[in-house]
Amino acid sequence: MLKVAVIGATGAVGQEFVIALNRHKWFELTQVAASERSAGKKYIDAIRDPNSGILRWHNREEVPEYVKNMVVSKVDDIKPENFDLIFTALESDDAKIVEPKFAKTTPVISTAAAFRYEQDVPILIPGINDNHAELLNLQRKNRGWKGFVAPLPNCTTTGMAITLKPILDRFGIEKVFMTSMQALSGAGRSPGVIALDIMDNVIPYIPKEEEKVQVETKKILGAMNNGSIAPAPLKVSCTCTRVPVLDGHTESVFVETEQTADAEEVKKEMLKFSKNVSIKDLPTAPKDYIVVHDDPTRPQPRIDRELNDGMTTVVGRLRKDTAFDNGIKYVLLSHNEKMGSAKGAVLLAELLKDRNIL
Question: What is this enzyme's EC (predicted)?
Fold first, then answer.
């Protein structure tokens, strides 16, 4: 068992880590850290509202027994050399300061954007760009670290990159246009104001989201070239919106392929990719990496987001697009708090352990 710590353990993403690591076959969560407000308290008390006494627990599952009485540490009190791996669930500004300190001695897997765009940092999605993991050893060498920082993609990028990979490999891609309908949980769990903003409403702008998706997709689907990643030469444009859905990002995707591709061929490629995906034997890997529905009313967040515990990307309305000479369009659903966040980070840790990088 590898000893791991979670930084930012009391927030929404940190809570997902606590769930994902419960009774894990390979990783043992031995320490949790959060803000000074929570430090020194038992975990169960740290997630309790100090005024009302109500638990600020955001998961449908109960708080796991193993973590309830674990005492929350200050971030500064964490001794990274005591761990085999550290998961961080921090805001980017904090991640820029904290993660390099930890990475000097210990691998860090991060949900923050702080290091995603640096040349020696891959943005890894297990099963999609596993070969980019070799860049982590170069990062260690470049920075003089024993560890590394391995960030996840933006949660909106994840589902789209997963579905584009089999299309790119078989047919090539010229252009991608995407419109997202993103869940509230992706904006954090702020009470009050966001509820007033979103009810009976669609918010057509999410700061920095579109830029993240456009850059990250090309980096993830790019090729390793002399110790760096050459971004994929496709063009990506998107519009990201917030909708009154609790969990699960829905995306409408239009793809111009290099070679002619009909909907049935694309479906076959997606399902073949799902069946043969490289990470299928890892503990957190879903039984189905991609599911393709023929029912034109699917996917739907309320029905489909928990498939395989939120680790499956669900595709539907796969059909020919008439605006492109070689065009395909579809709708996808990806669970932003499972595959797109903490549980996806645990899956990445499993991949790196399996590859002897951890």
Answer: 1.2.1.11
What pLDDT is stored for residue 83 in this prediction?
A: 98
Task: Given the residues 238, 240, 249, 335, select the one marked as catalytic.
Answer: 249
Q: What range defines the domain where residue 175 resides?
A: 155-334
The helix (run of H) or strand (run of E) holding residue 348 is helix 342-354
Q: Are residues 210 and 98 in the same domain?
A: no
Whether 58 is catalytic = no
Asked if 82 contacts 3 with a C-beta cutoff of 8 angstroms, the reply is yes
Other C-beta atoms lying within 10 Å of the C-beta of residue 49: 10
- Across 21-30, 55-64, 248-257, 283-292, least confident range: 55-64
Active site residue 155: yes
Query: pLDDT at position 189, please?
Result: 57
Do 184 and 282 lie in one domain? The reply is: yes
**Domain holding 27: CATH number?**
3.40.50.720
pLDDT digits (tens, 9 = 90+) for 40-81: 999 999 999 988 999 999 888 999 999 999 999 999 999 999
Cα distances (angstroms) measured from residue 214 to each of 153, 176, 221? 11, 9, 11
Tell me the C-alpha distance between 152 and 183, whole Å. 18
Q: Which of 132, 155, 240, 335 is catalytic?
A: 155
The number of beta carbons lying within 10 Å of the beta carbon of residue 64 is 17
Q: How confident is the model at residue 257 (pLDDT cuts 50, 70, 90)?
A: very high
264 and 120 in a common domain: no
How many domains, in total, are found in the chain?
2
Instruction: Give CA 318 to chain center in angstroms.
Output: 24
pLDDT of 196 reads 75
Strand-pair partners of 313: 290
